[in-house]
Amino acid sequence: MKSEFTSEFFRGNRMRLRTLYGRATPIVVGASGLLQRNGDNTYPFRQDSSFWYLTGINVAGAVLVMDKDTEYIIVPDQQAHQTIFDGPILEEVLLGRSGVDAIVGEQEGWRQLNKRLKRIKRVATLIPPEPYLDFYGFYTNPGRAVLQEKIKTINAQIELHDLRGHVTAMRMVKQPQELATIKTAIKITTDTLGYIKTHLRDYKSEYEIEADLIQAYLRKGAKGHAFHPIVAAGKNACTIHYNINNDSLSGARFVLLDTGAEVDEYAADLGSTYWLTERNKRETAVYEAVIAVQGFAYSLLKPGVLIKEYETQIEHYMGEKLCELGLITEIERETVRKYFPHATSHHVGLDAHDAADYQRPLEPGMVLAVEPGIYIPEESIGVRIENNVLITREGIEILSQDLVQ
Hints:
The chain folds into two domains: about 5-170, Creatinase/prolidase N-terminal domain (Creatine Amidinohydrolase, Chain A, domain 1, 3-Layer(aba) Sandwich), CATH 3.40.350; about 175-400, Alpha-Beta Complex (Creatine Amidinohydrolase). It contains twelve helices and 22 strands. The protein has helices spanning about 5-20, 50-55, 80-85, 90-100, 105-120, 145-155, 165-170, 175-200, 205-220, 280-300, 305-325, 335-340, and strands at about 25-30, 35-40, 40, 65, 70-75, 100-105, 120-125, 130-135, 140, 160, 225, 230-235, 255-260, 260-265, 265, 270-275, 345, 365-370, 375, 380-385, 385-390, 395-400. Strand 4 (about 65) and strand 5 (about 70-75) form a beta hairpin. The protein is globular, with a radius of gyration of 23 Å. The two termini are about 30 Å apart. The model has no long low-confidence stretch (mean pLDDT about 95).
């Protein structure tokens, strides 16, 4: 599949970052590192999204340096066995992809950077997250932290300026190449979900559906999953991020799918709930309530909207629907969130839940997911419908309008 991205895209992003931040302070940005899976085996490598946005390079442990009028990328020195087993790092390919002035090896690159860092008072970088995020219950990639430690080792007094807000501001509004790529990822995903719905009664387990998802994504030219897919049959759909995907479909009345293809690092994030049998009256009422909430969300989205206010309005409207379903008697946050425990919208881009400042009003060019859901564990019913939309000058364009319901 032909990529939409050329060196002009990445060079333009770096120029915009320098314009946003200023040219007086050197910018040093690190890539993600490889992570051990077990033994001498690593997890599949996924580049730090912001590093990729600035370089287009999928090399673990690389470092981008922007200083005055010079740009170069430091790449790890390879031992002989690494070159044999993993293949060489091809300088000409990296230069052509990124558009930087030079690719330099680790020893030479850090020798150059060392001299510069010792003489300055501040450097701009992407500040690392905490090693462990309690809210999500996972460890973070140490790549940024390793880079920060190296910088501090060279100059303990150096001041680190955080670039995350600047890069986030850039990433929120998508450029034409990004939109074209997201639309491709969405098309691959909607086509695949349409196939699965058509053949739904041929499946006997959740994992058979998951297998067809990845096969279709790869056959259609995607890199694979943008995130681990959710294939949740029956009561499993009441677990919001269920991803075990190994249960039987026997006895289940429906299956909730939440999935997205990844194309050139960009994600689709779509979902639907498909019935294995004809919907009964109760299931139809819940399904139609979710569709109504999604339609209400569409009516609110336009430039200038603040997500916090938008979510508050949807929460109240969802409360009305939950009252109609007899699930609650009063519209209060605690009662509504019992059956609708997640937000309706998030940004979509290089990450399925993309970098975003949710205090910033919506603007044309932003891409959002719209995913209301109702989950009733006591009735073993869970329904979620998720589409991706583009904010336009007039309101929205539903990018996934071909998603089969």
